[in-house]
Fold these 3 entries.
Entry 1:
Amino acid sequence: MAVIIETVELKKNYGRHEAVRGLNLSVRAGSVCAFLGQNGAGKSSTIKMLLGMIHPTSGSGCIFGHRIDKEKESLLIRQKVAFVAEDKRLYDYMTVAQMIRFTKSFFPRWNHALESRLVEQFDLPLERRIRQLSKGMRTKLALLLGFARGCELLILDEPTEGLDPVAIEDVLQIVVSLTAQGTTVFFSSHQIAEVEQVADHVLMIDRGRLVLDAPMDQLKEQYRQIQAVFPEPIEERDFRLPGIEKIRTEGRTVSLVASHNVDLIVEHVRMLRAGSVDVLPISLKEIFLEKVKARP
Amino acid sequence: MLLYKAWIETRVRFFAGLIAAAIVCIFYIEQHAWLVEMWTRELQNPKGYHFAWMPLGIHEYSWYLWHYLYDNYLQQVWALFAVLFAFGGLIREKNNGTVLFSLSLPVSRSRWLLTRLTVAVLESITLSLFAVVVVLIGSAVIHQSYSLTQLLLHTALMVAAGIFIIAFGNLCYTLFPGNYLSLLLTLVILGVPYLLLQTYMQHLRYLGRTTWLGYLDFGHAMAGPWKLNWTSAPWLTLLMTWTLTAVLIGAAKVYGDRIDY
């Protein structure tokens, strides 16, 4: 599958603060790619750079082969990309109907059928001004305005923030159905459960650097937690093997997170005379916490 | 749709401008008889004020209106609202939190800027044409007349020279976002010198004197001579003003393109 988003050593500094530090990422066409990271990890800055809203300090990036740092090419990108920002404030002096009419005028491939369906599904009051909408309603309208653009790529920054569980489920279903129709989805979220539900690829960013880039299936199949109890306390340095991502020792107990090479690691642990060895599946949330926690 | 959006955002200011322009025009039309009577009394009184322009003000209604409206108060009201029409754009949206939505649309930053400026210019033209209508009707009510050609020529000159104010206001807002701060700065940087110079140069002209400061008299460039025609129009000043306007718009564009939202 073709790569439609690609960044090479992308950097963004705000004064002395390095928000994004040499990010290399790629997103393949047709995928649902989750972009995970803590607050301030650099997710929104990366997305804004991809869409030409902020300028990279250095490095480069392309969407659909168009360079993100060139204004003219950025315009071409935005013709093909629908974006729903984390801040979902819209023109509060417009009515819902005016807002929809305004937005659709820029997108020749606007999906009228989806618009009608979502207006009904989200119960959006067409004649009400946006300033009179609740936060949840504004979020639903912002999502409608993104989904109905008929674009090849959908970039969502915290799409379900402020939504109730029913609406979240609706949104995830729409994401899945759009993907089935060939739309690529790149979204950031703090809701790991949502990510596990819809994403087929995961990118994790921590302090401006990419710390994980893997398909969801691979994560589920290969990532394992290995817990071993030893007769005597043991040193961390005894576990320097390929595939070990994290080591935590508490007295005689050692907990390892392995990204691959699990069989070899288990064999090594047994060789170190472990009394018991347990190999457990690990959730995406645990992987996320291991990846972003306790880094110096 | 961009023009429609910019119009919705500025329509309150626009209607306020119409009201202000109407008040100024109606006030000076209504005051005509009283002022003429007062100047006549002054001229008849040996100890009264005797200014060179007074006979003209008494006998020429068109001079009277030009002096009070196009050389002074209508021009000032128009300039103030032209600045206010130019405020806004993506910078304001950054403060409102809607800029990410706007920038997600396939619209270049330059087009956002040009749309804002276009609406400001159109509103300014409409405001000045509205004043023409008020003057025509008001003059008819007091049984006076003012040449429509002269009215339109003065209106055209005011807008043509005043376009600089729109560009200046927009750049000021881009550099110093916020209605109050940018208005204050525009008034301090542009408004105060403009008013002081306008008053000083009017005084010198009545004394029949000239100075090099006349080249900077932006107010007079907007007003032009009392009897305006194609040959008496200040073309050189207009050319300088348009050049400056282009520079200011260019600066707003370059700065706007570099802003991180």
Entry 2:
Amino acid sequence: MPSLLTSAQGMSTQDRLLAHGLGGAKDLPISTELAIAGAVAALTISFTVLIVTWRTPRYDAATSGRPAPAWLQALVDSTAFTVLLRAVGLAIFCYLGWVAIFGQDLLINPFFGILYVLLWVGLVPASLVLGPIWRALSPLRTISTGFAKLIGSDPRRGVLTYPDRLGYWPAALGLLAFVWLELVSGQSAELSSTRLWCAAYVAVMLVGGAVFGSDFFARGDPFEVYSSLVAKLSIWGRRDGVLLVRSPLANLDSLRTRPGLVAVVAVLFGSTAFDSFKDSSVWVRFTQQHLGTSYLLNNLALVGFCVGVGLIFAVGCVATGVDRERIPRGRSALPDLFAHSVVPIVVGYIVAHYFSYLVEFGQQTLILMSDPMSNGNDLLGTGDLTINYWLSYHPSFLASAKVAAVILGHVVGVVAAHDRALRLLPRHHQVTGQLSLLAAMVAFTVGGLYLLFSS
Amino acid sequence: MPHIMTVAVFACVVALGAGCGSESEPSNAGAGDSVNSGTTIDVTYQDGKVSPSGERVQVALDSQVTFNIDADAPGELHVHSAAGDEIEFDAGKSEHTLTVEQPGIVEVELHGPDLVVVQLEVE
């Protein structure tokens, strides 16, 4: 990023902290013992779940969960609460717009940290704890709704009905575009390029919202779809307007299957795996030997990882017999019907991959946010805080936490797939039909552990 | 559900146990030549090509890392650690020393053509 470095000339060392995309030192690899223990645990769990656990499906989105306390339902449904969240979302949006347009093209501009760390990575823990938070905050939903109300139309309806067969595909493409900006473009820390990406995103969302109504945000906004997907692993659900508390497994089962769900999951997992892989010594040495084509190689590798994940999963799903009476579309419908079960594996791996990054660069960003125009201000009073690097100084703890996240994700995923298989597959295929999917899941988990170990 | 929890708890205990096991073992990788005497890395930069090129080098925490640079043009090495050091060098031979005070993978990157020289594995 040459322009950034020239603009950073003359600044103190601290100003250039993030001079390599975002992030300084990266996590140490996990130890061999930990990687092997994780892989063995993944295998053991998979077969234990298959053989030992229940034989009739347990989770039914139509009945699962119990209503949340009445006061909580009243609170979250109240106009004041909705307006408050929308105001918070708009405030974040205005702040981002301010630093993006008027801030300096320096890495100490908090724009990068807010976008890549607090929003992109932070939405995972936020959605795990609070549920579909992006949907509640989304400033673009707010603006779109505001427009619709101004001209007196129903914000839920647009000019056209959102076509069902599009499903989550626009979100999958949007996610791919974002990870491309972050990981491959080489421009991820350049203000003008990142700003252009965000402007395009805002434009597509507002036009989509005007044409298709609010359905577009639920299925086409990459960040809302990501957040709502992760929120299925929280304890918060809704059925017919009633706020429910239910186990994350039951909640996950309630994920609506739509075309493109596999693509969304494949992009999330594939791109995170690519992020590990691209910093490995092997890949760095390889691309630097082929310097003229390293950009092309990185593009191909990103797409290769995403497509590879999708294919492994799809093949894992369809290698079973099905009952046409239960699933009229036959085997080709299975990948979408099982896609919810890889969500926990993806989330476990993402948590492992980004844990220290979120904690340490999240703190960094909070400090930088106090000086939005990079002129030495301390507007929020956080400017003097120092970053706590406890996690980096305790690599064994960090490594164990990462492996625990991966394994926990694997357990939840395997259980979700098992339960769905009992519901969907004909009786005589219920065990053998799960084997290939189980193999795909073990491949994802072990592959993820391998990347944590080797890069 | 009890089965699943048992399995999950078991797996995590196994995983964490293994993690703790590895913690108590001394890390012997690269320790022989780096604990006291520090690590020396010979860097050549000729015709826009750098060597080493993306190699992983293990160094001990707080030890000295010395770069022996032989270059045909001036340039800059950026050390992507939390401290964010920077080494400017002139054409010809020069020697530069730094210390990394935080565990992690730290890339040392040439800027001009952006090329990773080494990845320091600091533990």
Entry 3:
Amino acid sequence: MTPLIIAGRTFHSRLFIGTGKFGSHELMRKAIEASGSELVTVALRRVDLDKNPEGDPLISKLDPGKVVIVPNTSGARTAEEAIRIARLARAAGGFDWIKLELTPNLHHLLPDPIETLKAAEVLVKEGFKVLPYINADPVLAKRLEEAGTVAVMPLAAPIGSNLGIRTRDMLEIIVANARVPVVVDAGLGMPSHAAAAIELGADCVLINTAIAAAADPVGMAKAFAKAVEAAEEALAAGPRAPRASADASSPLTGFLWEKPEH
Amino acid sequence: MTVTVNGKPKPLGEAKTLSQLLEALGVKAAKKAVELNGLIISPSAFATTPVAANDQIEIIQFVGGG
């Protein structure tokens, strides 16, 4: 496959990792290393002044020479809140990549398309490299691309559900029409799901819960990396298109019971 | 004399600047974002930004997230 380029940056791995839910920062660091990932997401929250005023050392465990750090706007319910978080992320760490995540309903965590588009339009103008998390809506994906986002991140299934690809038909339409990289995000629970996403034409996948909440996150990170690579290699090898009827692999001649023709 | 930090009242004490307040609260300033009365303050300006009673302050950090 041709190398993946997002906003001018080349990525050698098509596996992106979310940093939530890991049992420890050390486990997170090892899992990211084992995955070969070059892009990780982080969140922003208030410092807990009573329990841990010094703050979470998470960001110091990530090597910006090896991974692109992409803050998300998780928790935002409106465009205004998401824009505020993006600006804070830039102020705190100089980060200008932002995963736009606007989920007003904490039960299903599905993204608000209208607020997402509004926020994207503002943040693109402010020079952010915007990666919007969206439902698998081809029209919205196109509208965001036209607004100048550097990628689109359609979901496979609800965040953290590990249900696998439940939006296949819409993802195929997005992939067929997108002029920016498509990152399948959310809901991928097993390496086979990630492979299926790449095989259907997605440029990359973002995995968090499936790796971080596994009994052995490092082992699971390796498994996802292999699956993504396997799918890439398969596509590069030129898969034959499926067909509705059988096409024998073994010769249909020379059977033992064949009577020689005279 | 108090300020509101991350939604809770905190004593302003002797702090005259944002840097002094962060120090008094035990906050390490690296990779933190601060909003003072709704305005984002760049870390390079923490030392020169005055704080006063009744200021509304948010101190934000990076945490794990997907």
